[in-house]
Amino acid sequence: MDFEHVLTRDDAEYAWAPALDRMRGPIHRALQDARLQAGDIEEVLLVGGSTRMPCIAAFAAQVFGRLPLRKLPPDEAVAMGAAVQAAMKAGDQAVDDMVVTDVAPFTLGVSTAARAGHRHISGVFSPILERGTVIPASRVERYTTTGDFQREIRVEVYQGEHAQCSDNVKLGEYTFTGLPPAPAGEQSIAVRFTYDLNGILEVEVTAVATGRKEAFVIEQRPGKLTPEQIDEARKRMGALKLHPQDALPNTTALARADALHVQLTGIAREELAAAIASFRLALESQRPEVIVPMREQLTRLVTRFRLR
Q1: Is the peptide bond before 288 cis (omega within 30 degrees of 0)?
Q2: What's the CATH architecture for 108-241?
Q3: What is the pLDDT of residues 5-22, one digit of tens each?
Q4: Where are the beta strands (DSSP E) in 160-212?
Q5: What does each C-alpha distance from 297 to 102, 161, 283, 294, 303 come to in angstroms?
Q6: pLDDT exceeds cutoff 70 at 100
Q7: What is the mean pLDDT of the chain?
Q8: Residue 246: strand, helix, or coil
Q9: Average of per-residue pLDDT across 51-77
Q10: Band of the pLDDT at 87, cuts 50, 70, 90?
Q11: Which residues are paired to 141 by β-bridges?
Q12: In the β-sheet with 137-144, what is the strand arrangement from edge to edge?
């Protein structure tokens, strides 16, 4: 049985309206994560077959307050982007002179316990690598025992944005054993997440008291990479495992500021001390977008006081 029905553009756009409206949330969240307003975007480029629809262009113009560009064939642009991304991941020499940044689409973290009076609330999500972080990236956080003479800690890895782990997606778990027995809160572990463009998440757990390390790998698409490819990726990821407080530009900036702090007195010394404290807090965040501006601010302040 054949059926034929004529849709006007108005009818079609009315039917598509709910789908278009759902696009607002991800767009606004992306702008918020980038700390930008819609007016800060200089150009809006539409790619993909659906952007041939006039209502898509009208929607983009409404959201960003400017007419979008459609200079490239929409399907060809997607194919070209996929080819470049594949070449970047494969380390192809044809793209050696190109730099393409990618970001973590979801926050990655672990399950922890929070104290509420005399009770412990388990399953609290503790982010380690926030969504929107430029990858490859490596971040580390410390966690302490919650029980007396606890000898092991189960590290449960989740992805998502909710405060409770039960509302997020569990990616894997690992039990770290052999902790020295001690009262609750006196033993701690450092959990480091290292994430690369291939979707490999390496979770490294270190006992702070003994320095003993164990690691496991979670793949975005298990079986896609061979064991040899995973080992090679983990070797490259090793270069990322440097806390910002140990990076040369940051240690140099702190050393110069500390040396000047010894020489100053009065209000100037207080102002420099506040800038040093702010920079140390920025280093603890392990976020380059926070660290770099604070380091530049500290450097300018040091230069200004030296020129007096």
Answers
A1: no
A2: Sandwich (2.60)
A3: 888 988 988 998 999 899
A4: 169-177, 188-195, 200-207
A5: 27, 32, 14, 5, 10
A6: no
A7: 89
A8: helix
A9: 89
A10: confident
A11: 191
A12: 137-144, 188-195, 200-207, 213-219
DSSP states along 217-230? EEESSTTSS-HHHH
> What SS3 state is found at 207?
strand
Distances (CA, A) of 186 to 84, 130, 147, 219: 49, 27, 10, 33
Distance separating alpha carbons of residues 306 and 264, to the nearest angstrom: 10
Question: Both tokens of residue 250?
Answer: 């940051």
Residues in contact with 268: Cβ distance below 8 Å, sequence separation at least 6, in sequence order: 305, 308
Supply the DSSP symbol for 208: T
Residue 150's φ and ψ, nearest 5 degrees, are -70, 130
pLDDT in tens, 174-192: 999 989 999 988 999 999 9
Q: At what angle do helices 9-22 and 24-33 cross, to 10 degrees?
A: 40
Which helix or strand (DSSP H or E) is residue 89 part of?
A: helix 74-90
For domain 9-95, the question of CATH label 3.30.420 is answered with yes
Residue burial 69-100, b: 16+ Cβ < 10 Å; e: rest: ebeeebeebeeeeeeeeebbbeeeeebeeeee
Tokens in use for 226? 């061979």
Distance CA 135, CA 130 (A): 11
Query: Phi and psi of 101, rounded to 5°?
Result: -100, 140
201-213 tens-digit pLDDT: 999 999 999 999 9
Can you tell me whether residue 291 is helix, strand or coil? Answer: helix
Query: pLDDT digits over 18-58, tens only?
Result: 998 999 998 998 888 888 898 899 999 899 888 888 899 99
Tokens representing 230 are 């995973």
Let me know: does 233 contact 279? Beta carbons within 8 Å: no
Residue ranges of domains in the chain: 9-95, 108-241, 245-306
- Indicate the pTM of the whole model: 0.73
- Work out the percent of the chain whose per-residue pLDDT is above 90: 50
